[in-house]
Input
Amino acid sequence: MKADCVTCKNSNCFFLKYCSLQWREFLSANKTTSVYQINQNIFLEDTYVEGIYVVHKGNVLEAYSKKDNQLVHKHTVQKGDFFGYTGYSCSKHLFTAVAQENNTQICFFTKEQIYQTCLNNKEFAYQLMLFFLEALQKNEQQNTLNIKLAHG
Output
């Protein structure tokens, strides 16, 4: 079942919020939609980043592996959120993504589709930049906190 970006009612979806109706038609026709079962991997840590994923239905856990191969929870991604962007510019996923429910539906957009979406939707490009800047700031705050905790 392919999720339709034109008729989608998911008000949390970044693409729905910031893309024109005409562009959502393009995305709907060109994206890939897949269904995953509980505990099924969507992508693995250290594999090549090929695009960005959006949760259409269900929940996804992003986690990283410790030296003993146990997964450590990073965060849960919910309906409408996108994920898989960490490592986007450096080519490999820094985390593993795992479906947390049966029939989790994921939309996948290639790097080229993201690039074209940015070129053709100024508001999308601007909001995406703000999203990445906020994610960077949160990461910097966490790193600063970790350094303070480590040094007393």
About this structure: The radius of gyration is 16 Å.
